[in-house]
Every structure is written in structure tokens, then in C-alpha cells.
Specification:
Distance between the termini: 32 Å
Largest sheet: 6 strands, mixed
Length: 155
Amino acid sequence: RALFQQRHTLTVTMATGVAVSDEVSTSFLKFKLQQEPFKLRYFVYEIKDKKTIVIEKQGAREKTYEDLVEELPEKDSRYVLIDLEFESADGRPTSKLVFISWNPDTASIRSKMLYSGSKEALKSALNGVGIHINATDYSELDFETSILPTVKKFA
């Protein structure tokens, strides 16, 4: 395991120099199983000091997708992992883990490049998340017209 993490960090370093914090990986495993203290709805991740992807915010289980969207900065990039509950095409209640890369057009070029170039490192740390969405403006975060149709393809 240590060897894999070391190799993983080297791969990340060659791209943008950004690594994923250990806290991200350990909290993800508990989040996936909805174990305390990670019985949550979502995580918002940021790149701290242009070096490390860390957890910026956590959304309590009772929070909604709309709450998450309100927490995203208008002029800066972030990554999101959400346990999204919805109804499948045949009417069953279901949920999926969804990774969203929020890279708004209004963010600085440096921020957009840093987040775009570091995304794969975080995606590999969030092993098993099969739905990945890129959003560059709020219309692409609209639940009914953008997110739900994408997620339903995997239900």
C-alpha cells in the first residue's frame, strides 16, 4: 500500500506538482460506506497552496444538491464528491456517487489550468466513482436539465 501511494504521488508530481492529502483517501473510504463521522451528503475539495488537494467543506447528510451548489465559489475552481439520491427511469429510489469538476469560466486562467491538470490525481484517489461531470458555468450544474440526465444513464 505504501509503495502504491508513493508511486501515485510521483505520478501526480510529474503533472502539476499537486498531491492528494491522505485525509481525502481515508475519509472517502468511510464516506463510501457511510460510516461515522463521514455519514455525509458531499465533500468540496480545494487545492491548498498550489500543492495539495484537501477537503474544504463537508455537507451533512440532510443537505441537498442545491445546498452544495450554493457553497461553490463563483470565480474559483473546486472539486466535488456527492452522494446523489434520485429516482431511476423505472421509478426506483437510488443513489450514486458523483464527481464534479467545477471549473467556471470566470476563474483565473492559472486556477483553471491547475484544477484541470490535477483532476486525474483526485479521481484516482476516489476509486470506484464512475460518474464524472465537468461544469464551467451554473447552467451545467442545473440538477434537472444537466446533472440528472447524466446520472440517470448510470442508474
